[in-house]
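Lay summary

Proteins are chains of building blocks that fold into shapes. Our project writes down both the chain and a compact code for its shape. Here are two examples, one after the other.
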Amino acid sequence: MENKTFSIHFESGGKKYNGRVSPSDKTNDAGEPASYHVVLNEVFFGMVSYNGKWTVNEQRPHELTEAVGHAIEEQLQRK
């Protein structure tokens, strides 16, 4: 089984974040992962998904959710 986990690093609100992202095996209509399991600074952030905008299944600040989403996009573009 291939490990598809990747790292993200970004700054938001003056704080540095390091994270691990694991794509779900479930895919959307475009064949992309339906969601991403995200851990930031060794704390579970939530299941992040994109459906016209980045959302998370936990109570998190909108700005931080957007920053996580953009960091995921950047890493996916590098692959």
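And here is the second example, written the same way.
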Amino acid sequence: MNKKVLMAVLALAVVLLATPVMAKPGAEKNNDKFLSFVWHSENGIQTNLEGYPIYNPPGSTDSDARVIFVEATWQLKPEKNNYIQIGGESPIAIGAAGYEGHLYVQTTVFSSTYRESNYRTYERIMWDDNYVEIMCNERATLDTTLKPPFSASGTFVGHGLIDGQKVQLTGIREARQLPPRTLQLECIGTIRFLGIAP
């Protein structure tokens, strides 16, 4: 290799190694296009649209065992604490009229005290002239021998339009039961602003 070419390659390598990395994994945002995102809701109402059970599934030994498939809507209670928060801005309250939710749930009941569920959730959250749509996959367990008896976790992706800009969302979803009888659902992740929509 030509000595001048070798020296140029080595000089470039030194410059690249000395350049600081700007993106910080785990930081609240890596640049002005990424912000933290929270969707928080409490004690929604499930209304089943369609569902059917399969009793005594293969391999079951408990007389209570069954598999249940349900399609349902999910609605917010207007008096509860439901909000979106983007970055460090103040939370934006979301009322029942600003929300649409749809669920597909498969629940396996193993016994009278224990069951597992797989949820696919579709949500549309609206305020002013803005909206985000979120799709979530989560797994839940209900064990009445534990306190709290219910917990769930999963992931979500989404998109929407905020202040005229297209946005994309990703993150994790957590559900937990708080005493005395509050079911708290949270999507926590990042929102990416993609620019003005055409």
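What can we say about the second shape? The first helix runs from residue 3 to 18.
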